[in-house]
Specification:
- By secondary structure, the chain is of the alpha/beta class.
- The chain has 2 domains: 197 residues, 2-enoyl-CoA Hydratase, Chain A, domain 1 (Alpha-Beta Complex), CATH 3.90.226.10; 49 residues, no CATH class.
- It has a 6-stranded mixed sheet, with helices on both faces. It has a 4-stranded mixed sheet with strand order 4-6-8-9.
- Helix 1 links the parallel strand 2 and strand 3.
- The radius of gyration is 19 Å and the shape is globular.
- 38% of the residues are buried.
């Protein structure tokens, strides 16, 4: 699926969702939101997908909302932005609820909606030169893209409020310290290192990472007892699955040869 703003390709169980508006710094407008939601729905509907990788062409991950587009639609801006946000959020929910883990590969500035997209992922990889900023309130806006949901759960409520209220620009290393980023790679080796991580994740035994993602999501709302019950059910189901039994049999064969 090749669009004006988003390209989606699926090969060997890996879905690659690429923001393709490099000339516009991958700014978010209505067309972007429409194509993002369509790509996310396509990923959620494809049972062959093991992993979704979100990346961007050019030197920017995404600068967030397209202010020029906002001004161009000023006579009907409220319904215009509501349509954008609704489509954007539809895509985010499909990626969040889908079984496939999500990796974001942040190659440059991630601001506003770009920041929201970056940290929605299960694994966030960043170039050393990448930068992160909430940016909404400095433009007179409130956050969207799940930022007020995800950010407090990563850094805590007070720190999240400060980051969204005062909009400090975070380096990749600062984002790593806060837990917003999981790994930082040097610019020159970024693409190669991202691909190494992608292949490691894709090579995991079938079912294990979708189960992990589901358990992590439920842990936010469950009591300890509820989560323990879910863990017990999940590990028992996976242990008896043909894919896991094949992995365990192979492990035993390797051990017995030593």
């Amino acid at each position: 699926m090749n669009g004006q703003r988003i390209n989606l390709s699926i090969t060997d169980g890996i879905a690659r969702l690429v923001m393709a508006g490099a000339a516009r710094r991958n700014a978010v407008d209505l067309q972007w939101c429409r194509e993002f939601s369509e790509a996310a729905i396509a990923c959620a509907a494809d049972d062959s997908i093991k992993l979704v990788v979100i990346s961007a062409e050019g030197d920017f991950f995404s600068v967030g909302g397209d202010i020029d587009n906002f001004i161009a639609n000023r006579t009907h801006l409220r319904p215009h932005v509501l349509e954008m946000a609704s489509l954007f959020h539809l895509g985010i929910m499909r990626l969040h609820q889908g079984p496939a883990p999500v990796i974001s590969a942040v190659n440059g500035m991630a601001a506003g909606g770009g920041f929201s997209i970056a940290i929605l992922a299960d694994i966030v990889l960043a170039k050393r030169s990448a930068r992160f900023v909430a940016a909404y309130t400095s433009s007179g806006l409130s956050p969207d893209g799940g930022l007020t949901y995800n950010l407090p759960r990563i850094v805590g409520a007070r720190r999240a409020f400060e980051l969204m209220a005062l909009n400090p620009v975070l380096s990749a290393d600062q984002a790593l310290e806060l837990g917003l980023v999981t790994r930082v790679f040097e610019d020159a080796s970024f693409e190669a290192n991202v691909e190494t991580v992608v292949q490691q994740v894709a090579a995991m035994p079938a079912g294990a990472l979708p189960a992990l993602k589901k358990l992590m999501a439920s842990s936010l709302d469950n009591t300890l007892q509820q989560q323990l019950d879910r863990e017990a059910e999940s590990v028992a189901r996976l242990a008896a699955s043909p894919a896991t039994l094949d992995v365990l049999d192979a492990f035993l064969r390797r051990r017995n040869k030593r």
